[in-house]
Amino acid sequence: MAELLFEDEVFRVRGAVFEVYREMGSGFLEAVYQECLEREFQKLGIDYVAHRALNLTYKGEALNQFYRADFVCFNKIILELKVMQSIAPEHKLQLLHYLKATGLRLGLVVNFGAPGKVQIDRVVL
């Protein structure tokens, strides 16, 4: 069986996500989950940057436009938070663009909006 990319770090991040979901359930605004996850990351000692700007380039030159990731954890995993009925292909595509912009290899789309569960999808570059 192939080893998963950043398995230990993803395990810790998923643990924080599940704890927030266990406490809050589904359906709050994304900003609520953002704040709850920040508190859980701090409590668990997970290295993160919230709302990190992701710079873009065109032919080697910096653009004025940039993306903003909800979280970058351990300086190697991008988290994109959603509160939707389900994770749609465009959400994964958005995260793929974030990965391309940064050169990072792994992202997680976390959806707190699905009734009765939290969804976590991996996107690998």
TrEMBL record:
Pfam families per record: PDDEXK_3 (PF13366)
Superkingdom of this protein's organism: Bacteria
Annotated protein name in UniProt: GTP-binding signal recognition particle
